[in-house]
Specification:
The chain has about 130 residues and is mainly alpha-helical. Helix content is about 50%, strand content about 10%. The two termini are about 20 Å apart.
């Protein structure tokens, strides 16, 4: 969960602040759920809620909260149900994860830091990123 949140916060958020979209469209795929037979990327329902909160913040900052989710997929039916519920609750303001916990780097790996740094080094020719 923490790895994905850091990718959103360190790459997606700074770009969305500069790009200032009029609307954010989300292809809401849930195959990154931790028990999904195809994705195997270990995101929990709480992780989906945290990612949703990050997207809500970006939408509120850039496009007056205009955010559309389109259900795209996921292959673990229980995980899909739990994760979609977590996203919908977050959209309703029913926070699954307490506010103070959204900034934690639980599960963040050193590999993710390195990957994000490499991506930023490529994108910094086009976008400004805050110093970490």
């Amino acid at each position: 969960d923490g790895d994905y949140l850091q990718i959103f916060e360190r790459i997606l958020t700074p770009i969305s602040r500069q790009f200032k979209p009029q609307l954010i469209l989300v292809s809401a795929g849930f195959d990154i759920y931790f028990q999904d037979p195809l994705g195997a990327m270990k995101v929990t329902p709480a992780g989906f809620a945290r990612l949703t909160r990050s997207l809500l913040k970006a939408a509120n900052e850039s496009c007056e909260g205009k955010l559309v989710f389109i259900l795209e997929g996921g292959y673990h039916l229980t995980g899909l149900e739990e994760s979609v519920k977590a996203v919908l609750k977050e959209l309703k303001g029913e926070n699954l994860v307490p506010e103070g916990e959204t900034d934690k780097k639980d599960g963040e790996s050193k590999y993710t830091d390195s990957l994000i740094d490499n991506i930023i080094s490529v994108l910094k020719s086009f976008w400004k990123f805050p110093m970490v």
